[in-house]
Amino acid sequence: MKTRIGILGMGGVGGYFGGLLAKEFYQSDSVEIVFIARGETQKEIANNGLKIITDTDEFIVFPFLVSNDPQFIGKLDFLICATKTYDIEESLVSISKCITKKTVILPLYNGVDAPERISTLFPDNEVLQGCVYIVSMIVSPGIIKKIGTYEKLFFGSTMASIATLNKLQTIFKSAGIESYLVDNIEETVWEKFIFISALASATSYLNQNIGEILANQTSRALYVSLLNEITMLAAVKGLNLPEDSVMQSILKLEKSPHSATSSMHRDFLAGNKTELDSLTGFVVTESLKYEIETPTYQMVFDKLSNL
């Protein structure tokens, strides 16, 4: 029996990593990669494939199938979810017929509450935890551009069998994905959340890219203030994060392409729906729950909520 893997969400994350999987397992006897897409994206990939552009290369891949019709998609062994956080419930319900009790779900969202939200919908399924570090985006339907060389995928679970986790890791490695199966996955996901939440909040609030924030003393101070507040929240929640996690986030930012910005900032600029509630509002809400003060996050959330 072939292992069937669905990629839900063909944006910067799902498109790029799904593209690597499709490239490796095109016409494979052991693995089928299914892109779950609709509209212009579905049409473009079906007709011309998915184009991946990097700093040094570009290539076109074809999945086994691209569709948004559960009848055509069929049952899935693994489902990798990479939509926007505001689409979690709607997107999963739309393909619920493809998800059996044996389907293993790997969320690769920007927020930290996805596994809980998915488990509410599918309480009988193994829901892993995961996160990625990558700068990639949609250029147009069916075309994904990745900037820079930094790309890492982390995943794990305290509940799933080691055989299931190793099987997925083997598939990732075969596709040339720099993936890491980690034991302390909750802390790893929160380390990513600290980085992306502060970055998304700062870039959107200041309307500046990474380089502009790093070069401006006032902007950098606001970014560091956000880091300090969200790190304090993580500590109060009992997460065992590295003592230098704030400095590590700053170093990650300095290593990122200075011309790049966050996906939330890009969505604000384009007038699109944003992940403000998941990336900024979540910190405000959790801080109130734990009775700690996060004035910078509150200030950012209040301004961006009124845009």
Low-pLDDT stretches: none
Oligomer: single chain
Overall CATH class of the largest domain:
Alpha Beta
Query: How would you write the strand order of the largest sheet?
Result: 5-2-1-6-7
> Can you tell me the number of structural domains?
2
CATH fold call of the largest domain = Rossmann fold
Number of strand segments: 10
Fraction of residues in helices?
40-55%
Q: What about the largest sheet?
A: 5 strands, parallel
Radius of gyration: 19 Å
Helical run tally: 13
CATH homologous superfamily descriptor of the largest domain? NAD(P)-binding Rossmann-like Domain
Order of helices and strands: EHEHEEEHEHEHEEHEHHHHHHH
- For the record, the CATH architecture of the largest domain stands as 3-Layer(aba) Sandwich
Strand-residue proportion: 15-25%
Distance between the termini: 51 Å
Descriptive account of the structure:
- There is one protein chain.
- 48% of the residues lie in helices and 22% in strands.
- With 307 residues, it is of the alpha/beta class.
- It folds into 2 domains: 3-183, Rossmann fold (3-Layer(aba) Sandwich), CATH 3.40.50; 187-305, Orthogonal Bundle (N-(1-d-carboxylethyl)-l-norvaline Dehydrogenase, domain 2), CATH 1.10.1040.
- A hairpin with a 2-residue loop joins strand 8 (129-140) and strand 9 (143-156).
- The termini are far apart.
- Belongs to the ketopantoate reductase family.
- Its EC number is 1.1.1.169.
